[in-house]
Specification:
By secondary structure, the protein is α+β, with helices and mostly antiparallel strands. The protein has one domain. It is 28% helix and 24% strand.
Amino acid sequence: MVALLAICGLFGLNQAAENASADIININFVGGSDMDGRYAPIALMAGQWWNDQIAGWNRNLPGPVLDRLKKIDVDVIVQNIDGVGGILGGANATDFLTYRGPSKYGQTIVLSQGGEFTGDAEDFEVMSNLDILAVMVHEIGHVIGYVIPEIAEPMALTDPDIDNGSPGIVSPRALAAYREATNNPFATFATLEKLGGGGTAGVHPDSLDPAYLDIPIPGTNRTSDDIMIGFFGGVNFFDEILLSKTMLEFAHDMGFVTWVSGELFFEPTGGDGRIGGRRRGRNGPKNPGPPPGGGFLRSQGGISSVPEPSSMVLIGIVGVCGLGLYRRRK
Ligand SMILES: [Zn+2]
C-alpha cells in the first residue's frame, strides 16, 4: 500500500513535468488486459522515466538522419505470457531509421523509432505498481535500443564474440565508463549477460558483474542494480530504478544525449525536429500478438535484501515470482 501511494504521488509530479517539456518517447497503450485501468498510467510513467534520462538525439548525427527522425513510439500490451513467474515481459524495437555513410557514428547508423513491449498479465496481477513500473522501464529500454542486436551489431556497439564467444559492449563511451567502474583501464569490452538463454543472454548487462550491481543511490545509504539487468527481484523505492554509468553512457553511443551530459541535442517534434539547448539535468490499436522476441525480463526470486517495513506486498510478490526462476545474484 505504501508503494502504491508513492507511485500515485510521483505520477502527479511527472505528469506536470511531461507537460513542461517535449519528450522523445511516446507511450501508446494498445491492448490486452487492463485491470481497472491500472497499467496505462504506469506505462506513461515508465515512458516519462526514460524522458527524464534522455533529452533527445545528438545533433552531431548526419543531417539526413536528423531530417527524418521522429519520436520513438512504444506500444504497450499486457497479456498472459507464461503464467506467474518465469518471464515478466518481453520487448523489441520494430521500427528503425538506418543510414549508411561516413559519420561520427561510423559507417552505419541504426536508430530505434519505435517498437512494442508485452507485460505478463498474470505476473502483473500479483505485483505492486512499483514493480510493474520497474518492469515497464526495463522493457521500454529494449525498445529504445538496450542492447538489441538489430542496433548494436550494425553500429559496432557490440562485438559478437569478444567475451569467449559471447557478445560484449565495445562502444566508446560505455566502455570508458565500464573501465572506470571496474577500475580496469585495460578492459576491452563491457560484459553482457551469459545466462537465461535466448532473449536474455547477450542483450542485458551481465547480472554477475559488479559494474552493474549495488550502485549507490545519491542521498541515501541504499544501493540498487542496473534496471537493464535481465533478472528482476523487485524494488522497494522509486529511486531504486536506475541505470549504471555504463548503461547511461551506452545511450550516447546509440545516438542519444542525456540530461546529465549537458550536450546539445536534437528534439524531434514529429515531422520537423528542432535543435535543443545545452541543458543540465538532475544527477492506432493493434491486436495483441505473441510476446516479441527480443529482450525478456525474467523474475529473479531468492532476493536476499533485508525487507523494509513498508514492503510487505513486495515480499509476497517476490515469493511468488521466485517460483519461476531462482538465481543467486552474487
Ligand atoms: Zn530485458
